[in-house]
Every structure is written in C-alpha cells, then in structure tokens.
Amino acid sequence: MRFVLLPALLAFDVVGAIWVWSTFGQGLWLVGSLLILVLAGINVAVIAKGATAFRWMLPTLVFMLVFTLAPIVYTGFIALTNYNGNHLLTQQQAYSSFERQTHVPDGTPAYAWAAYEAEGGGLALYLIPQLGEEAVVPDDLLGEEPTDGESAQPDPEATPSPTATETEPAEPTPTDPEADEPATGDLSDVFATAGGEVREATAGTDIFGAPDANGFPATIDGYTRLDVVQAVTRISELSATSFGAEPTVYRVISGSRAAAIENVYDIDRDAGTITDRRDGTVYSADPTGYFIAPNGDRLTPAYQTVIGIDNFVQLFGNEKIRGPFLEILLWTLIFAVVVVVLQFALGLLYAVVINSRFVNPVAARVVRAVLLLPYVIPAYLMILVWAALFNQQTGLITAVLDTLFGLDPSWINDGNGARLAMLVVGLWLGFPYFLLINTGALQAVPGELLEAAEVDGAGVFVRFQRVVLPLLLRSIAPLIVLAAAFNFNNFLLAYLLFGGNPPKLGAQVPAGETDLLISFTYKLSFDFGNSDYALAAAVTVLIFLALTPIVVSQLRYYNSWRGED
C-alpha cells in the first residue's frame, strides 16, 4: 500500500510546493505558511509510523486550522495593515499592474502590416511606417491612460477588438493611395516576431524577398505569408499578440494598421522604485503603501503594507471615530444585557404560568405552541416583517401609535426611539427560546423540596425565590451567557431592522444609532465608500477580545460540573 501512497504523496507535494511558491511570489505570506502547515501534516500522517490516530484526526485538524485558526490569525494580521479600497493589491501585484501599463509615444507613426507564419507555427509582422499618419490605438488595448501623476490599473483581461476592420484587407490596398507607396524618411521597415525578435528590414535584402506593389516582401525565408482571407480569419489572434520585446512591442490595431507601444514605467523591484519613461520621474515606495515622487505626486494603485497598531490608535485617538465607536460599544453591551434579561424574564413568566396546576393541560400545550412560533419562523423573515411594521410612512405600528396617542411617526428617526423598537423586536425573537429551556428546567426541580418549603410555611414567592430560581439558574446559566454573546453579535437584527439608522451626525465613519459592533464592522468593510477592511478587522479583534472572557467562563463552568460529576 505504501508503494502506492508514496508516489501519490510525492506528486501531491510537488503540486503543493508550486502552489506555495506562487503564493509567496504574490506576497501572500500567511496563505503560503498555512499551506506549508497543511502539507507538513499530511506528510507526517502518511509517512510516520504509529501515526494511525493522527491520520484519523487530520481532517478535523485541517478544517480547524483552515476555518477557525487561520481566519483569526488573518484577521489579526489585517488589523495591522492598511488594507482598504485604495490598498487592495500586494506590493508585487502593484508592480505587475504598472508593468502592464502601456502608451503610444508621442510622434509615433502608424504602421502598415503584413502577417507571416513561421514553419514552426510562430507569427511575425513586417511593418512599414506611415509617416504623417499618427497611430490611434483603442483604449481597450492600452488600458486607461495615466494622468496627473496617477496611473489607473489596466484591465488585464482586455484584448484588442478590431471593430469595423475585420472586413478590411490585412494589408494596404491599391485603392489607398497613401498605402501604395512605402513611407520614406528616417524610419526603417521593421520585422518583429511573436517570439521577441525585432530587426530593421528592407524588402529585397537578406532573408526578405522582393517587395510587392505595397512594399511588403512576397516571401521571407522560413516564413509563409498570410493572404488577405487568412489574415482576416486570424485577426483576433493577431490583435492579441505582442510582437517584439519589451519595453517596445508592436500590436495590430486594425485590419490595416499596427502601432508601436511602450511600457509607461520602468520597474526596479529590488530598489522599490518606479520610473516614468515619459518624463523620468522616479516614484519610490514608502511606508504608507504608495509610490511617491519627490514633488509629492502618488501613483495608484497603492499597495498593502504593515502599519502596526495605527488602526487601533485611530479607533481611540481620532475623535470623529472614537466617539461613535465608544457609543456603539456601550450600546452593544447595553443591548446584549437588557435584551437577554427581558427575554429570560418573559420566558420564565410564561413557563411558570403555563406549567401551573391551575392551567388546563390542553390549553397549556396550545398556548405554548403559539408562543413558540416566533422561534420557529426564520428570524430573517420576522425582522423584515417588523421593519415593515415600523415603517414611518406605511407601518402599522407607527400608524396605530399616531392614531391612539398622537405620536408623530418620526419618533423612529430618533436614536432612543429606534433603540427601544430594537429591544422590543429582540425580546419578541428571543423569549420563546427561554420559554422552552425554562419549561424543561422547571420540570427538573424536585417536588420534594417545594413540598418541604411549603410545610415550613414558605409562600409562593418565597418558594420561587429560595428554591426554584437558584436551581433554575444553576442549570441554565451557561445558556443565558451564550444568549448574551449571541445578542452581542446579533447582526441580522441590527442590519435588517433599521440598517443601523438613524445615522450618527458628524461621524467620520458609517455609524448609526442602532448599530451594534458587528454591523458597524460590516459597514466599514462593505458599505463604506473606501471599504476600510483593516479598520474593520481592528474592530473584529476587539470583539474577539470582548467575547473571550465569556468563553473562558463557560469552560470553567463546564469543568466545575465535570468535577462534581
């Protein structure tokens, strides 16, 4: 069996090594390190003797590493960077983007062209400069032309699309008087291959055969000329091919014309500099993630870089961010505690009443089933229904309050009013859960204790306070804590009910009066104009730190139970 596994493992390692090398080449160090750990674990599981137990655990460990530990580490790393809408690329990816940026040098003429195919299958162009005719290159061939010291990222998927030229001949025709005669002057004819060769050429010399009526060699040694039909048929392939070698390449721009295209920038990755070939300006990489010229001009796209704890400093140091953030943090804590207390109290009240011996058992079952409906229906749908009920113009609740009490529907645009409505909806969604668990917990309270307390003269409320409630809290305390943690991160309610609105005035970030930390984080990442992922990651780290004590307390509570057992 090992003779089969080892070759398969070797092939798997080769593919994995290529993948790791690729990720490191793109600057994705964290992803590459994660892949190395996974590959190492798989190799140990297959090769090591006595690793039978580890083999069975490996899938679980890999999933835990990839879907639990890696996101935590990655989020912490992103919080230490400047990753946002302006800094989406790694530095190496930014270099590659600038390397793809091209332009047509000023004064460059258009070229008439004829296509040839080598015996081995490679394509080549014979180019005749058309003096006095300026090359006009489609935008999709060049990408967006850089302006004012800023370079837009070209679309790497864009390929030239020769519109209205596929019906033209692949070479100038006798009906075009300017094309009949080859251009004369300082510029020579050019022969360029797709393999990178570029040379000056003259028809009728060296490997080039005698010129035809348009000045193109009828034959070239080792090449076969494409006729008009063949050139038109393969115009898409010709348009997508770069002939010659960087920094200057030749591209077909129509059925009869080609152009010389140059790279805009010279890249020195080791020195961290980008030089604009047009004016010689040198842009240097700086710690903020930009390439900056001596006069302060910056190139885009910018790149990701580690900036340390700047995002955390911004959260607490920038007044226009600190104020909304601390207000949202306080509201999140208040909401998590208050809504759970209300849910528990209402659920316990219904559980005690329904389980009372004074209530008909059949009626109790019917009422319990009805009260559990909010818990059975998907919360997503229920929140949208509540949002419609609270609608300022058409909502039923706002209309009833206006009719009965004269309450202006605009109360929902007030921060306190919106928070109160959010607490009501949170109570509605969560009390059936506590009704369910309290009903079960009440069944576990020993009847003998209640009878003994009654014999001792304890009334109903004393028995509930001294006997029922302590036993109840002992059994469901972990569930109360988990419910608080859930409501601390109740994204659905915060985002779907009011979208976090009304907005906080004067805030520099997208903060609302009913936002919880989790919805605030989402807005920073996806609803904010600049998509500040790094700042959102910093908030996520703080949420993680805030919830860690809850998890630790749960583990201690569980361990205390296990010790008693």
Automatic annotation (TrEMBL):
GO MF annotation: an example: ABC-type maltose transporter activity
Record CDD domains: TM_PBP2
Bilayer disposition of the protein: Multi-pass membrane protein
Keyword list, A-Z: Cell membrane, Membrane, Sugar transport, Transmembrane, Transmembrane helix, Transport
Entry-linked PANTHER family: MALTOSE/MALTODEXTRIN TRANSPORT SYSTEM PERMEASE PROTEIN MALF (PTHR47314), MALTOSE_MALTODEXTRIN TRANSPORT SYSTEM PERMEASE PROTEIN MALF (PTHR47314:SF1)
Location (main, coarse): membrane
Bias-annotated ranges (Low complexity): 154-167
Similarity annotation: Belongs to the binding-protein-dependent transport system permease family. MalFG subfamily.
Originating species: Pseudolysinimonas yzui
Function: Part of the ABC transporter complex MalEFGK involved in maltose/maltodextrin import. Probably responsible for the translocation of the substrate across the membrane.
Coiled coil: none
InterPro entries: MalF_N, MetI-like, MetI-like_sf, TM_PBP2_N
Disordered: annotated segments: 140-188
Cellular compartment(s): Cell membrane
Membrane-spanning parts: 27-48, 60-80, 328-354, 366-389, 417-436, 471-498, 533-552
Every ABC transmembrane type-1 domain range: 329-552
Single GO biological process annotation from the record: maltodextrin transmembrane transport
Domain of life: Bacteria
GO CC term, one of those recorded: maltose transport complex
Protein name: Maltose/maltodextrin transport system permease protein
